[in-house]
Amino acid sequence: MNTLTRVKIPDRPGRSYTILIRQGLFDQLPTLILEKWRGRKVFIITDSNVRRLYGSRILKAFSADGWDAWLLDFPAGEKSKNAETYFSLQTALLGLGIRRDCLIIALGGGVVGDVAGFVAATVLRGVEYVQVPTTLLAQVDSSVGGKVGIDHHYGKNLIGAFHQPAAVYIDPGVLRTLPAVEFRNGLAEVVKIAAALDARFFREIERKASLVTKSNASLLSHVISQSVGLKAAVVGKDELDTGLRKVLNLGHTLGHAFEAATNYEVKHGVAVALGLVAESKIAVTMGLLHRRDYRRIVNLLRALKLPTKVPRIRHKSRFSAALGMDKKSEANATKFVLLKGIGHSVVGVEVPTRFIVDSLSSRVV
Asked: Domain of 154?
């Protein structure tokens, strides 16, 4: 399947970029990049897991085409998304002689994309980079939109920048090597995008939930294309997350707090699924969302083998601190994105503390 989506960033002449989705695209990367960045020195940043799977293959491919290419990696996992990793990559790049006309390739999942993108945004005050996401979560969400950064012990993604990629290359075929738990992790973001933005897409996923698998290449490419297209349309209208783009934070206010409270032992997609359930419960309690739509969300997540029962919060102080430091918080009040229907969201809703506490129970309303 060949699907091309173009994202236009408003008021930024020359800063549009192409998101290309195609089965088998991975092996065409040197050729595709050569078309736009001939003669550039290339630095590929990845993590230890992706390096083991694809590192030698991609480095060999670039070298065979005559590229001056280097491969840098760091330990896989959210715990590496920190200042130490960031500075070590900066040091390595500077030591290898990176220049403003070089190209950085972010090869990996969301953590790699965020860290490599932040490095690209700041080394030498900014160099171009491209995203090559290798997880479903990164393909449908984090590789698109230019949000890059690292975590802080106060919370997730609190240090970062907006640095749009020069291109995004998505190959659904690489998902065959993705563990089942990571694949489901990405499906949570698909559900969130559909719930927040498109009732028709949500209904389609409901109908085809049992068919969305790593081996169903055609349907998977369609799901990725739909998700990317919806997010791209929002990002194109609100690059810097000042208004419309906030709808994409659905499920993330509590989701990020769940991650922080478990020291990131709960994966991001799982946390988003739990956040979506808890925040939808809040929306029902506040009279915004019909109970029927809440149950549709719960049932779809279950059909995709995602959790719907919020685990017991052991580190309540850490949870509260993360909720208070969340970047969606303003003027000492936590503001939520809540659903008023499938495909329709309300941004900036202040939620009473008692409703937040009640949403953490495992009870299905």
From this structure: 2-177
